[in-house]
Amino acid sequence: MRTPPETSQPVFIIGGSRTGSTMLQTILSSNSELTLVDEIQFRSPPWIHRDLVSDIETHVGPLHKDGALDRLVELLYSGIPIGYFWSSADRLLDRDMLYEELSRHPLSTRSIFDAILVVRARMKGKSRAGAKFPVHYSFTPQLLEWYPDCKLIHTTRNPKAVYASQAAKYSRPEQNWVARAIMRFKQFVHINIQISWTARLHRRLRDLPNYRLVRYEELVLEPETQIRQLCDYLEIDFEPEMLKPRQFGSSFKDIGNNNRGIERSSLEKWRSAIPGFTAKLIDLLHYRAYRYLGYGND
Questions:
Q1: Is the pLDDT assigned to residue 250 strictly greater than 60?
Q2: What is the pLDDT of residues 156-170, one digit of tens each?
Q3: What's the confidence (pLDDT) of residue 167?
C-alpha cells in the first residue's frame, strides 16, 4: 500500500519559459512515485500578470474570516484564476477531496499550496508531490522558506533557442510584418530579461545541496544518463518508461503531435528561425550569463 502523499520534500521545476520544462515534467511524472502539478500561477510579479494569491485577496478576502473556505473553493473552480490548470480545475483537482484537505488546517497561503499538491498526488496515486513552475522563479526564496528540504530543478536552454521558440509560439500567419516585428521585439526584450534573471538565480542557488541545474541540450542528447542522475538526486527509482515522454506543446509544428520519445531536431531549429545579427546580439549581451550557465557562443 502506498504511503499518503506529503509535501515535506516536494519537487519543484523552476526556470524560464521554453526551456524544456514541460518535457521534463512529463518525464518525471511518468515515474510511479512522483507527479508534478502543472503551472498553478501561485505567485508572479504584478508587472507580468496577476496570480492566484492576488485573486484570493480580491475574491476571498481575509482567510480567517467566516465563510472563507467556501469562497476559496468557489473561486478555484470559477474559471477566474489564470492558466490552463485552473481552466480545467474540475477535471484536474477533485473538488470534494480538496475541500476536505483544506478543512484539515487553518487556511493560509501555505496550506492552500500544500493542499493543491497533496490532492493532485492522491488523485494520481503517487507518494511524492511537486509542481512545474508553481511560482515565477523570482519567488524561489518563498519555496525554500516553506520547504527547506525541497528538491529544486532549474531548467535552462541555449538563449537563442529560447528566443526562437518563444517568437514562434506567438507568431500568427494573419499578422502583417509590422505586427510580427513588434511581437518579435517584445519577445526579444522578454527573453533577454529572462536570461539575466536565470543566471543570477543559478549563481545564488548553485551551492545548495537541494538544487540542480538541468540543461535542455544535455537532457536531449543524453536522456538516459541525465534521467538516471535526476532519479538519484530525487531519490526515486529510474523506470524505462521515463525515456518515452509524450511530445506536445512545441512551438515548431513538425515536432510533437502526441508522438513519444525525445526529439533531437529541436536542438538546431533556432539556427534557421532567427537572423544571424539577432543571434550575435544575444551572444554579446549575455557573455557572462553564458559562462555561469555553461553555454558558449555557438
A1: no
A2: 999 999 999 888 887
A3: 84
Query: Left (φ > 0), alpha (ψ -120 to 50) or beta: where does 61 sit?
Result: left
Q: Give this prediction's pTM.
A: 0.91
| Phi/psi at 177 (5° precision) | -65, -30
Q: Hey, what amino acid is at 32? A: S
- The contacts of residue 14 (CB under 8 Å, 6+ apart) are 133, 135, 137, 140, 143, 152, 153, 154, 155, 201
Domains of the chain: 1-33+126-298 (3.40.50.300), 37-125 (no CATH)
How far apart are the C-alpha atoms of 239 and 78, rounded to whole Å?
38
Neighbour-count burial of 69, counting CB atoms closer than 10 A to its CB (0-12 exposed, 13-18 middle, 19+ buried): middle
**Ramachandran class of 249: left when φ > 0, alpha when ψ lies in -120 to 50, beta otherwise:** left
**Can you read off the three cell numbers belonging to residue 210?**
537541494
* 75-79-85-91 Cα dihedral, nearest 10 degrees: 90
Residue 282 and residue 21: Cα distance in Å, rounded?
22
> Do β-strands 151-156 and 6-15 pair in parallel, antiparallel, or remain unpaired?
parallel
Find the angle CA(173)-CA(182)-CA(46) to the nearest 5 degrees. Answer: 110
C-alpha cell at 49: 500578470
